[in-house]
Amino acid sequence: MTPGQIVQEQFSQQMIEAHDFRGDQTLIIQAPALRAVALFLKEKPELDFNFLMDLTAVDYLFFAGGRVAKAWRFEVVYHFYSLKHNQRLRLKVPVEEKNPEVETLCDLWASANWYEREVWDMFGIRFKGHPNLKRILMYEEFKGHALRKDYPFNKRQPLIGPQY
Questions:
Q1: In a 10 Å sphere around its CB, with 0-12 CB exposed, 13-18 middle and 19+ buried, how is residue 35 labelled?
Q2: What is the model's pLDDT at position 142?
Q3: Where exactly are the structural domains of the chain?
Q4: What value does the mean pLDDT take over residues 132-150?
Q5: How buried is residue 108: exposed, middle or buried, by Cβ count under 10 Å (0-12/13-18/19+)?
Q6: Crossing angle of helices 3-10 and 34-43, rounded to 10°
Q7: Which of 76, 83, 118, 130 has the most Cβ atoms closer than 10 angstroms to its Cβ?
Q8: CATH for 3-128, among 3.30.460.80, 3.10.150.10, 3.40.50.2300, 3.30.390.50?
Q9: Helix, strand, coil shares, percent, the chain, to 5
């Protein structure tokens, strides 16, 4: 069985979609199941996904030429790798526009700390339980989240000079 099939079997009720393209497995799960699935990926010996390679987000605001072609606006995308088994797995978690928030994975993978801060800074998606969720790329006074599709590209930001 592939890692994706093992996870689908264990969390069938929380699965939204799964596909496999050229050996790259992708699972889309419900947001409340994120921590349980992540813990399963890390601790199950046959999976042993001990490396969080990347964590990012996607804004589907103008997807497919219209306003939100999906039932959700954002997806948080996790890329896991198992050094022991030389396998990769992509996990996607839909996030609603009204309350863009998912659980943090900082306590499971230390690399999640900076990745989650970047997603917060650029997309405005909060990570509940994050130990230090503050901007990492933009300055604190920056207004908005620059990678959201509805962010005005010509918006003027407050000028921040040297602090004496």
A1: middle
A2: 87
A3: 3-128
A4: 91
A5: middle
A6: 130
A7: 76
A8: 3.30.460.80
A9: 25, 30, 50
Q: And the tokens for 152?
A: 């005005």
φ, ψ at 57 (rounded to 5°): -140, 160
- State CA 23 to chain mean position distance: 21
pLDDT in tens, 33-86: 999 999 999 999 999 999 999 999 999 887 655 555 577 899 999 999 999 999
What whole-number percentage of the chain has pLDDT above 90? 73
Spell out the SS3 assignment of 130-153. Answer: CCCCCCCCCCCCCCCCCCCCCCCC
pLDDT for position 67:
55
pLDDT of residue 6: 93
Q: How far apart are CA 25 and CA 12, in angstroms?
A: 16
- Residue among 97, 159, 104, 89 at smallest CA distance from 124: 97
More confident: 164 or 50 = 50
Task: For 75-107, give one letter per residue: b (16+ CB within 10 A) or e.
Answer: bbbbbbbbeeeebbbbbbbbbeeeebbbbbbbe
Q: Which residues contact 42 (CB under 8 A, 6 or more apart)?
A: 48, 49, 50, 108, 109
